[in-house]
Each structure stands twice: as C-alpha cells, then as structure tokens.
Amino acid sequence: MFGKIRNSFQLVFIIMIASGLFASVNAQSLEEIMKTRGLSQTDMLAAAKTYTPSGKLDEYVVFSSGGQSGQVIVYGVPSMRILKYISVFTPEPWQGYGYGDDESMDIIYKQGSIRGKEITWGDTHHPALSETAAEYDGQYCFINDKANPRVAVIDLKTFSTTQIVANPIMKNEHGAAFVTPNTEYIIEASQIPAPFTNDYVPLTEFNEKYRGAMTMWKFSRKKGKILEENSFSVELPPYCQDLSDSGKNMSEGWVFTNSFNSERYIGGFGPGNTKFRDRLPHEAGMSSKDTDYLHMIHLDTAIKLFEQGKYKKINGHPVISMETMIANNALFLIPEPKSPHGVMINPSGQYLTVSGKLDTHVSVYDFKKMMKLINAKEYEGRDPYNVPILSMTKSLHGQVELGLGPLHTQYDSEKGIAYTSLYVDSAIARWDYLKLKLIEKIPIHYNVGHLVAAEGDTATPDGKYLIALNKLAIDRFTQVGPLHPQNHQLIDISAGHPMQLLYDMPLPLGEPHYAVMIKADKLKPLIRYKQKWFKNRVKPGRERIVREGNKVTVHSTLIRSHYSPEIIEVNKGDEVVWHLTNLERAQDETHGFSIYLYNINGSLEPGETSTFRFTADQEGVFPFYCTEFCSALHLEMMGYLLVKP
Amino acid sequence: MFGKIRNSFQLVFIIMIASGLFASVNAQSLEEIMKTRGLSQTDMLAAAKTYTPSGKLDEYVVFSSGGQSGQVIVYGVPSMRILKYISVFTPEPWQGYGYGDDESMDIIYKQGSIRGKEITWGDTHHPALSETAAEYDGQYCFINDKANPRVAVIDLKTFSTTQIVANPIMKNEHGAAFVTPNTEYIIEASQIPAPFTNDYVPLTEFNEKYRGAMTMWKFSRKKGKILEENSFSVELPPYCQDLSDSGKNMSEGWVFTNSFNSERYIGGFGPGNTKFRDRLPHEAGMSSKDTDYLHMIHLDTAIKLFEQGKYKKINGHPVISMETMIANNALFLIPEPKSPHGVMINPSGQYLTVSGKLDTHVSVYDFKKMMKLINAKEYEGRDPYNVPILSMTKSLHGQVELGLGPLHTQYDSEKGIAYTSLYVDSAIARWDYLKLKLIEKIPIHYNVGHLVAAEGDTATPDGKYLIALNKLAIDRFTQVGPLHPQNHQLIDISAGHPMQLLYDMPLPLGEPHYAVMIKADKLKPLIRYKQKWFKNRVKPGRERIVREGNKVTVHSTLIRSHYSPEIIEVNKGDEVVWHLTNLERAQDETHGFSIYLYNINGSLEPGETSTFRFTADQEGVFPFYCTEFCSALHLEMMGYLLVKP
C-alpha cells in the first residue's frame, strides 16, 4: 500500500493513518475531497502551484493572438484565468468596438479598409510587446493580420486598439509583428508571394513578378502611433517568408526571417488548375528540397538606404529593391532545414535557433560565424535573385536531435537552456543550445504549435513558467460540438526538478498561434479616463439638444443610473450626432448605450466620451438603454428616441 | 502557534513539525509551495474542490448569456474553465459565423434583420435549456436579445445557432427566453413599453397606446425550429415587464412575469425633454410607489384563444387583447415589492419567490392561495386596464428579511432551501422558504446580479454548486484597463457545512446576466458531421470548376493539408459560388477558408460542407489559405484565386 515514499505529502498520509487520525476528519477534509475527486498527490502539487484565491493577483500576464477571431487574448499566469479579449480587427459590441462610436468606426472601417473594401475580421498571429533595451516595457502591444496584411497598435494603458495600418504592397503575411530592441520599428514579413501591384499577373510569371517583402513600420512612442510616411519595405525573393525576429545585443541592427517553398513550387493539385493538371499538391511540392533559406537583413543599412531615397514607390509606398540591398551588403541567405517555423534569437543575441518542421533536429546558428563569413565576403553561391548565400555548415554552432516536428523555441533564465515545441511528438524538449544536448522531454496534449516562456524572448528571460499552445484539444475537455477549444498547457520549468504539467486551459474563442508573457507589475493600465481628454465631452449641467437645420446634436451625460436627457424627439431624415460623457469616477463603473434598430452599442468607461452619428431614417419609437448592469436601478436607465414622420 | 486545531489539514502540519519531517521535504513539497504562494489551508480545500487535472472532465456545464457581446458562454464546473463562446447575434470569424457561408449569413442577415435593417449584435440576457417534464434534456438552448427583440435557437448537438426569430411587435424585451416544462413554447416578455405598430406615437399617448406584451413562440422539437406561424402574443399593460418563468408541476399551464414602473412614469430628466422639463429622472420616478405587479397569465387558455382565432393581427402577428384575456380569466395581477427582478417558481411549483430590489425582504407567494382567490373571483380591485388584482397579503406564504438588494433566487436539492443574491449587500443568502428563515450569508465580490445553482430551476435541483454572477470585479484581478472583466464566483453549497467560496472566474468578453447549469452527461454533442447531410457536398475525386456564362461554381474538398483545386482563375465580374467539403473524419480536424480582400472566413469542421458566394469585382491575385493550424504542413495549405481583367 505505501510503496516508495515519494514526497512529504505521501508521508503525511502515512503518518495520519498510523496515528489513527483518518477517523477524526470532518466532511471537508482535504483527503476526502481528493478521494472524491480522484486527485493524486501530484495533482495537489499542481493545484497548489496554480490556485489563486479570490482577490490574489497573477505574477505574469500573457498576450496571445486570437488567430482568426481577429483579437488578442489576455490571461494571467499561474491562474490561467482569461482576463480580456481585446478587439482588434473584428468588431465587438461589449467593448463598443465598431458599433457606432466615431473612434472605433474610424479604426475598423477607415484605417482597416484595403483597396476600398471593408474587412471586418483578421487572422491575428504574433503579438509583440514594446521593448526598451530588449526588455518588455509594458507600454504597447502590436499584432498582425495574416489574411489581409495589416498591423495594429494596442495601447496598454487602455488595453484597446488605437491604430490599424494596412500594408500597401502585400497580399498575405505572416512574420509580424516583431519589434526592434527599442521599438523603433515594427517588422512585418510577407508569406504567400504575390505581385506588389494590384493587377492580374499569371502564375507563369511567378518567378519574375511575384515577390516577398519585409515592411519596416516606424513607430513613434511619443505619439503612440505607426508613422506610415516614415515606413518602408524591402523586396525579397518569392519564397514564402515565415517567422521573423529582430537581433538583440550582439546582433542588434539585423532582422532575420526564415522561409519555406524556396522551391517556388506553385500551381498544384486538382482539376481547377488547367495549366498544371495532376501536379503534386502545394504541401508536397513546397517541401521537396531538403533546405530552405534563413534570411538576414541589415536593418540599419536599409534605414540609411530609405533615408537616402534609394527606393522606388509602389502603390505610393517606398520599396528598396533586392538589387540595392545586395549591392549594399544588407541581404543574405543561409540554408536551413526545410519548412521551418521561426528563427529565435537567444538572450545574448549570438545564437539563433531554427527548426525544420520535417527534420528531427534543431539547428543553432552562431551570429559571430555568420558575420565572419559576411565580412570576408565568403559566399557559397547566389540564389536566382543574386542574393549571396552563406554556408550553412560554416554558420552553424551545431545541431541537436530533439524529436519529431520541432517548431518553436523559447529561452530560460538559466544560461544555455532552451525549450522547443515538438508538433508531431506532442512534447516539449528542454535542452542546452550551448552544449547541444537534450535534457528531458514532457508530453503535452496535443500537437503543440508555439510556446511561450516568462519573458522568454527578451534579453533576460525569467524561466519559471512555460505554456504550450496546443492546436488540438480532442478529449481534454467536456465536448462542446465538432469545433473544440484550443488548449494552453501550463508547465512548471522552475530550476531544480523535472518539468511538471500544471494546468490545461481551454481557449473558448479563437485559435491562438503565438503569445508573449510579461511580468504583471510592468503593466500600468488606466483605471479611468480624464474627462478633459475628450474634445466632445459634456459637462454636467451643460446637457442640451441643439438643432441646426436637419442636424440635431445631442449632448448627453450618464451617471448611475440615468441619461440626461432621457427623451429626444427628432424628425424623420434628421442627421443625429450624439455625444455622451460617462461622469462616473468609480472604478469599473462602465455604462452602455444602445438604441433599438440602430445597430449601436457603446461602452462608456469611467470618464469617457463617445460620439455616435446616424440618420433617423424611419419614423417611430426607439427605446435606448444602458447595456451594463450599473446599479440596482440599472433597468430604469433608459429613455426614448422618438422620430416624427 | 498552533491555536485551535480546525481541521485535519492543520493537524497534519502539527504532526509533521512534531515529527521533525519539515526538514526532509524536497523543493516541491506542498507546504513550501503553499508558503511561497501565500496559500492557507482553506485555500487548499478550495483548490482541491476545483482543480481538474489534464484530461479530467467537469461534472456540470454552465450556459451563460454574454450580455451585449451577443453570445452564449459555455463553461465547466467545478473547473470554471470556459469551453466555448457560441456566436448568436454577433458575427464571429473563428466559428465562420457571418463571414460568408450561406447558412450563417442567412441566420444573421436575413432571419435576424428587423424592418429591413441588419443588426449585427445582440444583448443576450437569459439562456434557457430545453426541458422534458421540467428537467433539462440537453437538446437545445434558447437565448433572447433585449436590445432588438429576438430569440435564437442553439442546437446542442453542434453548439451552434440554427435560427433567429425577430419579434414583430416589441421594441425592447427582457423576460426571455423561458420554456414551458416540455418546451412546447418559448416565452418572451417585453420590457420598455412601446406601440406595437412601427409609427410615431407621442409620449402624451403613453397610457393609451404604449403596451407591454408576452410572446409565446411555438417550438417544434422535431424540426428543431420555432414555428413563427404557430406563435402568438398576449397584450399587457404598459408596465415594464421584467423576468418571467413558467409554472411547473402544480402550476404548469401558467406563466408568470413581474414588472417595474407600474407608475407608468415616463418623460423624465433633463433639458432634452421639452414637455416634461425638470421632472425626476426615470430611475426615481419609476420607483416612487411601494409595489409593482406580478403578472399571472394562463398559457393554456391563451393557446385556446389563439386556436379559436380570438386575436387581432398586428404587423402580421396574432395578438390576443387584454380584454379577451381578462374575459376568459387568463390574466391577473398581484402586488409585489417594488422594482423586483425575477419571479422564481420552486421545484414543486407551489411557491414563487419575488424580491423587490429596493426592499430587504424576499416574498414567497403560494400558488394554492393564488388559485383559491382566482377560483373564488376574489379581487382586490382592477388596474387601469381592468386587469383583476389579487390581494398580496392573501397570496403570500410569507416574507423573510434577507438583506439589501435581494435579486434572484435559485433552489437547492434539500427541501425548502433557497439561495438569493443580494446586490447591494454583495452577499448570497441561504434561507428556508418554507420555514421563512434566514440560515446564513456569504460575502461575494462584488454586486451579484443573478446566480445559478446546479439544475437550480428544474423540478429536481442538484445542490452542490452555486455561482454568483457578479457585476463588478474592481480589484479582484490584474488590471486590464478601465473596462474590467466580470467575475463569476463558484460557491460550494453541498450539505453539511457552511457555504464556501471556491473560485473567482473572470469573464474576459461580454457581461453575463443569467446562466443555467446542466449535468454534463446530459449533453450529447456531435464529434463530426456526416458528409451526406449537406446537399452541396463535394465528393473526393469529383472536385471541379464549372462555368455557366459569368457564373463560376467551384466544387472543392479539403483534407490535411491541401485544397483541391488549388488554383482558380476567373474573370473580373464573374459571380463565384464556392462549395467546400472538409473530408476529415478525425476529431477536432477543422479546416479554415479565407481569401484575401473578400472578408470571408469559413470554419469547416470534420465532414462539413459550406458554400460561399461573391462577385470577383477587382482584378488581381488573391491568395487563399487554411486559417486553422491543421498539420505540420498547414502553412502550405494555400492556393490562388486569380481574377483576370
């Protein structure tokens, strides 16, 4: 019965039994609860490491992409409680984002439009936190849209999206958003090649006219905005560029991206393809070679070239040609195991890990060796676009066999220690990238894509926690139909003992791809807005309705629990502009604003002013009310908009 | 140091210390973890009651409204893990809901439209589960939209929305969705009174022309649909009807709703109101009387009246007048403490609890006494609309003082035991509604609205778990900007010991109002679709592109990890119809479908076929790809739509 005594917990049991104490426990004893719920001692250790009592706060906060939900998901570690879905590319009514107020309508429907088309979703992939000296500073989060190439800025004072920029030359992207060590630039790399222009170019001209690119978005920390006029792109070969990373410390000034389909295989499978009938599908044709290319781009040189005007404008956007980049020693390729997913720079900036998903090894490149080859102009050859190729063998620090489907690497606080996700193995490997040695593996459930460690891609990772971003949940949770949640598994990676799986967290909305984890105390969010920040603010006592011709301007205030004014009469056809100021100062006292039939919902947080505009195009009676349960009399917080014929 | 020994856990500590074992514990000992994380023994008891190890499933599943997010939120108990956000009134791209496929576009943009206006959000309030003999049967979930009166059907085989019906006469509602004990009808009661017609009616005619109503939506379990042609409404006075409930067992055949603003106070506060300037705001004027009215509606009689054609059609919809209802002894009022929020029928159907939010008492009505008065035609008087009023005193079983702001009541498995939320007190009261006695209170954080107990509004509640749906989180979680998550607190209500607070769960999106909790094993969701269920299914080997004039039909299949066909060329101006069948049979193997610039994203679950339609209105190169990380080669699952000029 007692077997080998593994830890103090088991000992306690034995002592209790020996002491004859079991009989005396009451209905709420820990042992009985554990028995009833089928919990082992290992489970209780895990429970103790994650359980966060009412009112206690988390040590870390994760920002995860929402994938095709178009959002960013914020959750706490170790509690694995989801704290907020930040709306970015997709309208969301609870946050009043894209449901009538001037500010968010401008972001989604003006800034977010492409070629005159409104896009009301995004495929968010890679969130990046703003950095100062290669450390997270907690000020901004950036996120990309793979489906319709765009980058968004999220202000971490308000946890809301404040800007979207549309990429002027790409038709698909993936390697974004990644920041330089001081957030001067946000990097966006294309994925599926396409012509930079918007016209039809047949696939027979793929090699000549389809292109990859990397856009360097200039960020102004002072304005909290991307400055489109100071941003530019670099032309790249029509390989499928993949994930990117900025150099740090030793490698600062360089940007790296890897790629797949250096075969330039296009025009695959099936009857739809009249020109290429019965060829292999893309997935096979694109992975027929053994290697693809790691791209090295010297950002500092690219910036100089941009400043010197050495670019062509395409769709009004400056693009530096490959030719110019090559001539200025600013673009290089190095072979890497085929179909990799990510190049991850270690804290010192010297080592770059790359995992070919179809290889069992992780490759560790040495930036010093790469620079030595570059400085000596020692090239192995050139690709079809004349880009110099460095020797893989001479660039490598070495390779380590970790398992099937290695994908993404994060770094530990301990020198040389890294963690790599193994998609096919469904496991995480802990290994030493200096000594090139596998230490241990832990199984996960199932098919891990990316992973994230505490501050794991900064210059000083924290260790402690690792999260596996699993792509399949299968049987892990109560079934909720054919579409399952994703599963993020929290793993204890603190030093001195083997990795331990602590917690499964389902993601109930969206399909996260990538996440970043920041120390919670670096975030300094606002509790309330200052009323004076808003030009349309309405002061208490100054509520009014002003008519000028057929334009009616309503100046309203909200406070627990009434609108002022509560009755508004207009005429059919009137243009209504409605300013509302939430006068509350109390924390968490948000008021809502919705009007029947007008597809409007505002979320007015303490101190905030929003403006709504609509044409009163139907006569009738239109109740409006507060959609937030704001007080015991919240149901009474309502009024009527009356539209006379 | 040892103080009073409270439980076995503390004893264990003492024994350990006494045994000198503390020194021998390793780095992972439970005690050290507890110390590091500041956890008490009480915390560990709570942790043990909620911690659900990897792969273990929950005992209960909660369906919660998402409030103004327009969704239904599904989570497990006791783990308090959120499993899914079901899209209902708001488009959501991850689920491919409202992003191009025929089925969901029809639900949102056709069925969901009102008076020709597209409404792309909802204010979901009260989910109801389908019942058989007043027990949850796990087949369907229904949910209302308060902002734009609508009711939706969610099929619990697929956990997806399958129907939206728009209320033809209401302009605002609240008391929905509630089902009859065998789900023959789904009840929807209005809230803010308005004319049934869509024309302008001035507020001076409020008493005469504004009305409340209750709609009885006929549900066909066989078709899984609301049958609009078999549904009807009952006219009610222009009080603000509030929450509703169907009678069960003894009271089956009756429907109850309470109300506020029986003052009919309208036209309040502020400068906007030219006719009623300087009156009290609505929140004050609507709560000036001491009582409002509990409404009793005899559904069985109403159904007969409907079948006999004793209605008028308004906006094409049958409405039974108050006059007809009164004449047929099918509509009564009983005074209730003012501004209540909900009337909750106990498991036997005999007792109804009502809480006036501005009173400190909960009132327990006795259905037997009410029926005695009705049968004796013993009325206390009539309201201005001639509705008979029953005596409150003679209808009451009694009242109990529970605390400030009593709001919502749920029932326990133990006879006579109920739980009532106290909004102002921020507490939950456990009390006996038969003996009319308060048992105990537990504080919550903060301002609880509704609450939900395990199967707590069925004929046989389970006890065990109670969840407080708190409206404010304030300082409970790491701050994420001025807009906080809501907080659902799990409370242990199992018999034999005081209530214990177990867990705080933030709601990261939406503002839940009401929830229902079902035994998890009653749910029988689908793992995959059968391909043959879809009329547009594409069989493997039968992929093709068919052109008829300027209409191009693409018949595509998807399987790990390619589309077939992968290249599609059309001409500018072509109408494209694109059928896609996911050939996967593996659990959780969803594929996505997005095209650059077309605002399309599909979620094709195993076996599912979806159809997308668009006009190729711009020439150019449009990559499409799978938005789900479906295999190690998912990035290669892509193709090109080429549009020739």
Report on the architecture of this protein.
The structure is a homodimer of 645-residue chains. With 645 residues, chain A is mainly beta. Chain A folds into 3 domains: 9-18 and 28-50, no CATH class; 60-397 and 406-522, 7 Propeller (Methylamine Dehydrogenase, Chain H); 531-644, Immunoglobulin-like. Chain A is built from 10 helices and 42 strands. A 6-stranded mixed beta sheet of chain A has the order 8-9-10-11-16-15. In chain A, strands 33, 34, 35, 37 and 40 form a 5-stranded mixed beta sheet that branches. A 5-stranded mixed beta sheet of chain A has the order 36-42-41-38-39, with no helix packed on it. Residues 1-6 and 14-26 of chain A have low confidence and may be disordered.
Summarize the structure.
Chain A is mainly beta and 645 residues long. In chain A, 12% of the residues lie in helices and 41% in strands.
Secondary structure layout plus pairing:
Two copies of one chain form a homodimer.
Chain A: H1 8-18, H2 30-37, H3 41-50, E1 60-65, E2 71-77, E3 82-87, H4 102-111, E4 128-132, E5 135-145, E6 150-155, E7 160-166, E8 173-179, E9 185-190, H5 206-209, E10 212-220, E11 225-236, E12 240-246, E13 254-260, H6 282-285, E14 291-298, H7 299-307, E15 312-314, E16 317-320, H8 322-327, E17 331-337, E18 340-345, E19 351-356, E20 361-366, H9 367-375, E21 381-382, E22 388-389, H10 392-395, E23 396-401, E24 406-411, E25 417-422, E26 427-432, E27 437-443, E28 448-454, E29 463-470, E30 486-492, E31 500-507, E32 515-519, E33 544-548, E34 551-559, E35 562-564, E36 567-571, E37 575-582, E38 591-595, E39 600-604, E40 609-615, E41 620-625, E42 638-644
